[in-house]
Design brief:
This protein has about 230 residues and is an all-alpha fold. The chain has 2 domains: about 55 residues; about 150 residues, no CATH class. It contains 10 helices and 2 strands, in the order ααααααααααββ. It has a two-stranded antiparallel ribbon. One of its GO terms (molecular function) is alpha-1,4-mannosyltransferase activity.
């Protein structure tokens, strides 16, 4: 039986908004808003600004691993236009969206690749950000086809080499007072490229392992859904 457009949309929405997912979303959202409201009651707007809102508008004029640091450094005293803010946010948002739709059912792997991509394309990147995805690495290693012979070692040395290269220029700038902003910015571009290359290799060598059970969805055409 052929499915028309409206029926297809209905089946698609029914496969997404299951009862368990709605309960999970309502409970999670309620806990978040209750705890946030409680902290807001005690600490006021300072809490909202420091805990949540600040991270939406944060700009750091000091050098960091991000490819945006040099532009922010040059224009820090000026007000950034909405277009500039959108341009810096859009690549990160698009990559996150693609990863969510592609790996949503393999949750541990989705968490990992999302975190790596979020850090790599962020407006501010410092070394402690790497801990965010390092702590998720043990969850995906058993399902990776990469080993410590060729691909694995190549990715490790490339990532560490790009980071060390950036740190060399940062040392010359910070401790030697050298005017190496351009070189440091180019090192940031190289570091982004290395992160992207490593992430692509991790994705290509990952054994897809859904954590949801496949259930039958009783419709006229016997479609299936994940729950």
């Amino acid at each position: 039986m052929r499915i028309n457009g409206l029926q297809g949309i209905r089946i698609f929405l029914a496969s997404i908004f299951t009862w368990r997912r709605l309960v999970f979303g309502i409970v999670s959202g309620s806990i978040f808003f209750i705890l946030t409201g409680l902290c807001f009651y005690f600490y006021g707007w300072d809490f909202l600004d420091e805990a949540l809102l600040y991270h939406l508008t944060r700009t750091d004029p000091r050098h960091n691993f991000s490819i945006y640091f040099y532009h922010i450094y040059l224009h820090f005293e000026q007000e950034f236009s909405s277009l500039e803010k959108l341009i810096s946010f859009l690549p990160q948002f698009i990559v996150q969206l693609v990863l969510v739709f592609r790996f949503a059912y393999d949750l541990p792997f989705c968490f990992f690749v999302q975190t790596v991509a979020f850090v790599a394309f962020n407006k501010v990147i410092t070394a402690q950000y790497f801990v965010w995805f390092f702590c998720l690495l043990p969850l995906i290693l058993p399902w990776s086809n990469m080993n410590l012979k060729w691909k694995g070692l190549a990715c490790i040395f490339l990532w560490m080499g790009a980071q060390s290269h950036w740190l060399m220029w940062a040392y010359l700038l910070e401790f030697r007072g050298k005017n190496v902003f351009i070189q440091l910015w180019m090192a940031s571009l190289l570091f982004l490229a290395s992160n992207t290359y490593v992430l692509i290799n991790i994705i290509r060598n990952h054994a897809y392992c859904p954590v949801f059970n496949l259930l039958k969805h009783e419709t006229s055409n016997k479609t299936t859904k994940y729950d």
